[in-house]
Amino acid sequence: MRYLSTRGHAPDTPVSSGPGFTEILLGGLAPDGGLYLPVTYPQVGQAELAQWRTLSYADLAYAVLSRFIDDIPAADLQTLVNRTYTAKIYGNGRVSAEAGEITPLRWLARPDPPSGEGGLAILELSNGPTLAFKDMAMQLLGNLFEYVLARRGEEINILGATSGDTGSSAEYAMRGKRGVRVFMLSPHERMSAFQRAQMYSLQDANIYNIAVRGMFDNAQDIVKAVSNDLAFKTRYKIGAVNSINWARIAAQVVYYFKGYFAATGGVQGDNEQQVAFAVPSGNFGNICAGHIARMMGLPIGRLVLATNENDVLDEFFRTGVYRPRNTAETAATSSPSMDISKASNFERFIFDLVGRDPAVIRRLWSGIDAGRSFDLSATPYLARLPEFGFVSGRSTHADRLATIRRTYQQHGLLIDTHTADGLKVGSELRTPDMPMVVLETALPAKFEATMIEALGRKPERPAALEGIENLPQRVAVMDASVDAVKQFIERHAG
Question: What is the CATH number of the domain that holds 115?
Answer without folding.
Answer: 3.40.50.1100
